[in-house]
Amino acid sequence: MKVQILSENRTSRPECLAEHGLSVYVEAGGRKLLFDAGASDLYRHNAGKMGVDLGRIDAVVISHGHYDHTGGVPSFCEVNRNARIYIHEKSFAATYGLEDGKPEEEPCSIRWTSEQRARIDGRLILTGEPVWLTEDIAVSGTIPVTEDDAAPEVFYQKAEDGTLIPDPMEHEQFLAVRLRDEAGESRGVFLFSGCSHKGVIPCIRYAKTLFPGERISGLLAGMHLYNASAELRSSILEQVAFEGLDYVLPVHCTGIYAICELRQLLGERCILAGAGDTYSF
Question: Which residues lie closer than 8 Å to 252 by C-beta, 6 or more apart?
Fold first, then answer.
């Protein structure tokens, strides 16, 4: 499997640009996939520098309905006329983060114009339940959680009377890819999670139910721990470390403290990835 990071919060490549967003190109099982499309069309600049032909992508998987993962979708549809876009059916409500206890003025949800949405609509595959792109590639649909799962941060939607209600983040989903060796045997399952708003551990747990009896071998994820308390951050990262993954790539909203702590826990199995980087797993 080949993984190229087209958009991310940081870069060490002078020819590439960075933004608060995430977009990842994946080649696996004979398919060419785009996981998220960043906050803007910046990913197109980086794709050109990295030799990624966006016109040849087979499918797009959107992790959730926030602007920093969907902003580049309209421009993608200009350069690719065929790829279907897998997005959760509940991704289109206006959602808000809090700033000093008050909702932010601008929503953090999808910011497509009505004209852009009209042009995109025919390309969308609305998910809810798991969708299998191939026998080895799955889009999770809604990620189940338990009462014990603590969300790293709560987002809100506005009710009809203007009051704020917590967004249950039902629109979040992950991409899972089964890796195979030369004999066709499974080498484990690699997960891609945009922000893990429902928690990265529920993602891992649900992936195990989609691929019963198989180990989770790799994870590329925004874990949304930059605002988490030190206690919650350490608890989550210790659970990630306990999974014994071969590779973990903490990206985007994970936060520098969490990335450093994860590196201490995992050593070189924690890969410090940024825009412009390419990996093979």
Answer: 8, 9, 20, 21, 22, 68, 194, 195, 222
H/E stretch holding 194:
none
Neighbour tally for 122: CB within 10 Å: 9
Q: Are 276 and 46 in contact (CB under 8 A)?
A: yes
**In the 8-state DSSP scheme, what is residue 99?**
E
Which amino acid belongs to residue 278?
T
Q: How many CA atoms lie within 13 A of 80 on its CB side?
A: 25
Provide CB contacts within 8 A for 271, sequence distance 6+: 247, 248, 249, 279
> The tokens of 42 are what?
């910046």
Amino acid at 262: L
Q: What is the pLDDT of residues 6-22, one digit of tens each?
A: 999 999 999 999 999 99
> Which residue from 175, 155, 172, 173 is spatially nearest to 164, judged by alpha carbons?
155
Q: Domain tally for the chain?
A: 1
Write out pLDDT tens, residues 194-241.
999 999 999 999 999 999 999 999 999 999 999 899 999 999 999 999
Whose tokens are 């993962």? That residue is 69
Q: What is the CATH number of the domain that holds 46?
A: 3.60.15.10
Query: Distance (Å, rounded) from C-alpha 250 to C-alpha 188?
Result: 19
Q: Which amino acid is at 191?
A: L
Domain interval for residue 219: 2-280
Q: What are phi and psi of 268, to 5 degrees?
A: -70, -10
